[in-house]
Amino acid sequence: MKTTRNLFLAATIAVSAFFTSGLTAPSTAEAAKIVAKVDVSSQRMKVYVNGRLRHSWKVSTGRGRYRTPRGAWTAKWLSRHHRSRKYNNAPMPYAIFFRGGYAVHATNHISALGRPASHGCVRLHPRHASTLFSLVRRNGLRNARVVIKN
C-alpha cells in the first residue's frame, strides 16, 4: 500500500512538473530584458533586447483627442486574442497591456502605420506585434518595459 501511494505521489509530481514547466517565467538570470521605446513624434518603435537594438517598426499612436500616455511602465498582462470592450469589440490581437486599458497590439489598418490613428493604444503591423508578443511571453512580463515619449 505504501509503495502504491509513493508511486502515485511521484507520478502526480511528474505530471504537474510537465504541465507547468512551459508556463513559468524564466529566472531573471536567464531572461532577456526587453524595452519597447515608442517615439510619438516619429511614429516609430525601437525594440531593445538586453540593451541592443533588435527591431525598428512604424506604429500608430493616439490621434486627435485620443492621446497616447507618455511615461515608462512594466508590461502588466498579455492577451493573444483580445477584443476591446470600450470600442465596439474591435480586435486587439497580440495585446501587451502596460497601463490600464492601454496596450501595444496588432492592427489590420496597416496603411495607417506611421501616423497617429488610434484611440490611444500603440498599434503595430501584425507580424511585428506577434514578434514582440512572443519576446515578452518568452522572457516574462517583469522583464518587459514600454517607454513612450514625444
Q: How would you explain this protein's 3D organization?
A:
Helices cover 22% and strands 35% of the residues. By secondary structure, the chain is of the alpha+beta class. The chain has a single domain (29-149), classed as L,D-transpeptidase catalytic domain-like, CATH 2.40.440.10. A hairpin with a 2-residue loop joins strand 6 (91-99) and strand 7 (102-106). It is globular. Residues 2-24 have low confidence and may be disordered.
Describe this protein with a few key phrases:
alpha+beta, disordered N terminus, 2 helices, L,D-transpeptidase catalytic domain-like
Number of domains: 1
Low-confidence sequence ranges: 2-24
Record field, number of beta strands: 9
Distance between the termini: 69 Å
Strand content: 35-45%
- The structural class is alpha+beta
Topology order in helix (H) and strand (E) letters: HEEEEEEEEHE
Using only C-alpha atoms, the radius of gyration works out to 19 Å
- CATH fold group: L,D-transpeptidase catalytic domain-like
Second rung of CATH, namely the architecture: Beta Barrel
Helix content: 10-25%
Shape: globular
**Assigned CATH superfamily:** L,D-transpeptidase catalytic domain-like
Query: What topology, given as strand order, has the largest sheet?
Result: 3-2-1-9-4
Per DSSP, the total helix count is 2
Give a short account of the largest sheet: 5 strands, mixed
Per CATH, the class reads Mainly Beta
Q: What is the typical, i.e. mean, pLDDT?
A: 87
Describe, in short, the structure shown.
By secondary structure, the protein is α+β, with helices and mostly antiparallel strands. The chain has helices spanning 2-20, 126-139; strands spanning 34-39, 44-49, 52-58, 71-74, 77-83, 91-99, 102-106, 122-124, 144-149.
